[in-house]
Amino acid sequence: MHRVIEGAHSRWRNIYYRSLGVKLHGYVWMRQIEVPRNFDEIEIEAGASLDQGVVLLCSGESQSHPKIYIGTQTYINRNTFLDASLSIIVGRQCAIGPNCYITDHDHGLEANLPPLEQPLISKPTCISDRVWLGANVTILKGVTIGNDAVIGAGSVVTKDIPERAIAVGVPAKVIRHRDGNEL
18, 34, 63, 103 - which has most CB atoms within 10 Å? Predict the structure, then answer.
């Protein structure tokens, strides 16, 4: 019975977010997520799953493309935060662990301005297909993570990660490739 109730709630959320302007291409499994504003700047493919407490936040000037795009069959675990001002793309069949933070921007460091008045600096962030992010991973602006890469729990990704790489640490560094070859 619990599954039936959760399924009904998820379907209701699909209707609700579609009515606000989120572009859902087919059914998306959704627990209680948060989309504070700019609903029309989010696009999610059928078969994606967003768990409890996921936040999809779009800010800044409107773009001609979605600021947040989530591919089919991607699972985003609890309390993960996608924070976009330009473009965050999450590919197909990704597994994103709980409590991750993914962004495409940060603020400047001008000496004469307080922190909240610093200019926003944005660069697109891309998580390619079949990427696995462990729990508590942070992905910073301008990063591209290649297909089939794995990012270890607690890592902070500040630079691009190549395809099939396994990266860990703060900042994240490639330790080996999925074919088993050590670096």
Answer: 103
Structural domain range at position 99: 2-177
Residue 150 sits in a domain of what CATH number? 2.160.10.10
The answer, as to whether pTM is greater than 0.90, is yes
130 dihedral zone (left: phi>0; alpha: psi -120 to 50; beta)? left
Query: Which tokens is 105 given?
Result: 């921007």
Provide the residue-wise pLDDT of the chain in tens; the chain has 183 residues: 878 888 889 999 999 999 999 999 999 999 999 999 899 999 999 999 999 999 999 998 888 899 999 999 999 999 999 999 999 999 999 999 999 999 999 998 999 999 889 999 999 999 999 999 999 999 999 999 999 999 999 999 999 999 999 999 999 999 999 886 666
For β-strands 173-177 and 165-168, DSSP reports them as: antiparallel
Which residue among 25, 65, 107, 177 is the active-site one?
107
